[in-house]
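To close the chapter, one final illustration. This time we ask the reader to focus less on the individual chains and more on the assembly as a whole: which components sit near each other, and how the overall shape emerges from the parts.
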Amino acid sequence: MSQMTFQEETSGAITIVVLGGQVDSINATELETRVMTLLDGGARHLLLDCGTLDYINSAGLRVFLLAAKRLEQEGGVLAFCELAPNVRLIFETIGFDRILSLYGTRSEAIFALNNLQAKAA
Amino acid sequence: MRPGSLSTKFDINLYETERLNQMVRQFGEWHGVPLDAVFVVSLSLDELVTNIVVHAGKKDPRAQEIVLRLKTVNKEVQVELEDDGCAFNPLELPEPDLNAALQDRDPGGLGIHLARTLMDCIHYSRVGRRNLLTLTKRVA
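The assembled structure is written out below.
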C-alpha cells in the first residue's frame, strides 16, 4: 500500500504541512481535501515541507497548482522546502520552479515567508 | 545493469498504478537499474497508465487490459505498454505552456509532459486493434 503522511504544524502565522511518503492518483483526492480545508480555515501562508516525500505524480502536482492559484488570488502564498532531488526534478520538468516558491531548507522558507508577511502587514 | 525482461498484465483500474510502481521498483532491484532511472521509468509509466485508464472508459471499444513489458539491454531500460482500447495517442495531447503565469497555468497535460521529457525516447503506434507505446531510458 502506498501511504501519504500529512502532519500540520504552525510557526507564527505560517501553516506548515509535513508531507511525506507517496502522493499518487489514488490519494491525491485526499491531499486536495486536506489542503483546501486548511485554506478554508484561513491559512494564507502555507509551507509544504517535502523532506520525507518520496514520490508524487501529476495528480498531486495538480493539487499544488490549484492551491497556489487560490492562495495568490487571496493574497497568500504556497511555498515548498526540503525537496528531494527526484521531486525537485519533477517540479522543474513541469516549470513549477518558475511559478511556485521553492526553498532549500525549512528555516530559509520560514525566514522568507515571515519577510513577505511583514511587508504585507 | 544485468540483462533481463519481465512481462505482466494490468486491469483497467487506477489502483493498478500502485502495483505497477511496485513492480518497476522490484524489476529495477533485480537487474541493478540505478535508482534515478527507476524513479523516472516508474513515474512515466504511472502517468501513461493513468491516462489509459482515464481515457479507456470514454469510448468504445473500451480497453480490457494493459500489457507491460520491461527489458534491460546494454545501457537501456526498454519499455512497451500496450492496451486493447480504441485508438488513443497520448502524445497528440497539447503540451502545457510552461511559460504561462501562475493564474494561466492549466493543470492538464502535466503527466504526459513528464513522461515525454524524462524518458529519452517515447513513440506511439497503432498495431492492429492495440495501442502500443514504446519508451526508452538510457542509463549512465
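DSSP finds five helices and five strands in chain A. Chain A has a mean pLDDT of 94. With these observations in hand, you are ready for the problems at the end of the chapter.
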